[in-house]
Amino acid sequence: xxxxxxxxxxxxxxxxxxxxxxxxxxxxxxxxxxxxxxxxxxxxxxxxxxxxxxxxxxxxxxxxxxxxxxxxxxxxxxxxxxxxxxxxxxxxxxxxxxxxxxxxxxxxxxxxxxxxxxxxxxxxxxxxxxxxxxxxxxxxxxxxxxxxxxxxxxxxxxxxxxxxxxxxxxxxxxxxxxxxxxxxxxxxxxxx
Length: 192
Description:
The model has no long low-confidence stretch (mean pLDDT 87). The strands form 4 sheets. A 4-stranded antiparallel β-sheet has the order 1-2-3-4, with no helix packed on it. A 4-stranded antiparallel β-sheet has the order 5-6-7-8, with no helix packed on it. Strands 9-10-11-12 form a 4-stranded antiparallel β-sheet, with no helix packed on it. With 192 residues, it is mainly beta. It has 2 domains: 1-111, Kelch-type beta propeller (Neuraminidase, 6 Propeller); 120-183, no CATH class. Helices cover 0% and strands 36% of the residues. The chain has strands at 2-8, 14-19, 26-30, 37-38, 49-54, 59-63, 68-71, 79-80, 92-93, 98-102, 105-109, 116-119, 127-132, 138-142, 154-157, 164-165. It contains no helices and 16 strands. The protein starts with a strand and ends in a 27-residue tail after the last strand.
């Protein structure tokens, strides 16, 4: 059973997943999403993942505790990288750098190996999932277990550092949101 799935642009694209295998959280990779090959990775690389994401040259698997594992061959072989501190939101690849958010901080890396961190504003922001548009706007949603309906919060940022909470009139509260992604929809009754 897969516990986390990501995508890397390496060699035309590969899916990378963490889940049941020879270890409790083994990493595997696939060209087509049907046939999977178990990766050569330390057991800790697939445990408690905040997310898996990749570029054309590197893939990272980031745990909630801030452990970063890195692959340069599309997920076939992994090694541990620099730790970045506790992570509260899924990591992203922007096209030029990896980003991962912790409580009060944003960590960034161009290669997934060496990381720099800076404080976010506000430092108390509680995001669980983040997406980025093609133009660079970030949107996040609250992560707390009880962040649903009246307690739900959405955030917006132009740089991933300074965040503004959206007014509750800008969205309809719903069940806890576990994933956010950017995309376009055709106009319709719910999205004119």
